[in-house]
Amino acid sequence: MGWRSLPGQVTEVHVDAAPSGEPLELWRHALGLGGVNSLPLPERVVEGVHSLGPRLIRIFIQEFFQVYGGSGRFDWSRLDPYMDALAATGAKIAAAITIKPRALYPEVDQARWRPRDVEEWQHVIRELVRRYSVRRHLVTHWEIGNEPDIGEHGGCPYLITDPEDYGEYYAMTVRPILEVFPGARVGGPALASVRHELLAGLVKFCRRTGTRLDFVSWHLYSNSPTQHADSVRLARRAVDMFPGPRPETMVTEWSCGLGGEVSVEEQACDPRRAAIVAAAVGMRCRTAWACSASTAGSGRSISSTRCSRGWGMRGSPPIRRRACACWPAAARAESG
């Protein structure tokens, strides 16, 4: 039945447009650079990211940068140009620490989280922070580890499933960060699943020991906005037990589901729906896209798999991908 055949009647609709709950701060929607290799961002990607104007880019400081060779010897020849390219975007950096220098971890074992020498490990962290947070003023957020609940399946070399173990690893790593740069924002555990006990366990550990915790973080790849909202509720429930100012919630990787082929047209609005639903339950977070600026497929990459090319927003080849659909809307809302 078309609208012309409807009976001639008037219905009054009242809309209460008064603000309720917390504001939707779209500037918190950030970008993430996937940990594919040590190559700096191509110039066209730097220009594209600069035009989007994100305030924060999340990266992985992986072992392929080989920054520490032992006996106090550092090599910044790979990480410096990588950071220079990120600096050219105009954004600040949230860096996930996911290194395992051979001098401190002689065995390849994802379950081994304690370094051979804790003091030497803390020296490495101090120099890392001194170089990129103090001298360069680039890294503002330091995230301790990445997906420790699934270990190498998440692309990083730590498998830490016991909350007390992760708490100890977290504490011994944030201590030198804050010694060198007290203004840093520190947090974790960057979980693959927000439901893992590490999240609540970290909050309890920091509350009990007085260890600083500025944010909690997790990841979610799902086509369901409801699942994104549920993850927010779970995280908020965990941080509600924290004394004093509540840690910020950060979804440092999120997108639509990873299974099957992705239709850009059909999935483009999913991030917007997920963000809006998450805001509706009172989320105040920063969000990041995994592999949003990957060089995979450029002919210079270690990895050229379909998944590493297909997740990104501005990867190579230059295909307009699903995240691009929500950035113009976010930019307009922020400027308006």
Offer a concise description of the structure.
With 336 residues, the protein is α/β, with parallel strands linked by helices. It has helices spanning 43-52, 79-87, 118-135, 163-180, 197-209, 225-239, 264-267, 270-280, 306-310, 327-335; strands spanning 31-32, 56-62, 68-70, 73-74, 92-98, 139-144, 185-191, 215-221, 248-255, 285-287. It contains ten helices and ten strands.
Describe the model:
By secondary structure, this protein is α/β, with parallel strands linked by helices. It has a single domain, classed as TIM Barrel (Alpha-Beta Barrel). The chain is built from ten helices and ten strands. An eight-stranded parallel β-sheet has the order 1-2-5-6-7-8-9-10, covered by helices on one side. It has a two-stranded antiparallel sheet with strand order 3-4. The two termini are 39 Å apart.
Mean pLDDT: 81
User: Describe the biggest sheet?
Assistant: 8 strands, parallel
**Ranges with pLDDT <50 over ≥5 residues?**
283-336
Which sequence of SSEs, written as H and E, runs from N to C? EHEEEHEHEHEHEHEHHEHH
Please tell me the total number of domains. 1
Helical content band: 25-40%
The coarse silhouette is globular
Estimated radius of gyration: 21 Å
The helix-and-strand class reads alpha/beta
CATH-assigned homologous superfamily: Glycosidases
Strand content: 15-25%
Q: Looking across the biggest beta sheet, what order are the strands in?
A: 1-2-5-6-7-8-9-10
CATH architecture: Alpha-Beta Barrel
Chain oligomer state: single chain
Draw up the topology in text.
Blueprint: E1 31-32, H1 43-52, E2 56-62, E3 68-70, E4 73-74, H2 79-87, E5 92-98, H3 118-135, E6 139-144, H4 163-180, E7 185-191, H5 197-209, E8 215-221, H6 225-239, E9 248-255, H7 264-267, H8 270-280, E10 285-287, H9 306-310, H10 327-335
Parallel strand pairs: 1-2, 2-5, 5-6, 6-7, 7-8, 8-9, 9-10
Antiparallel strand pairs: 3-4
Helix pairs in contact: 3-4, 4-5, 6-8
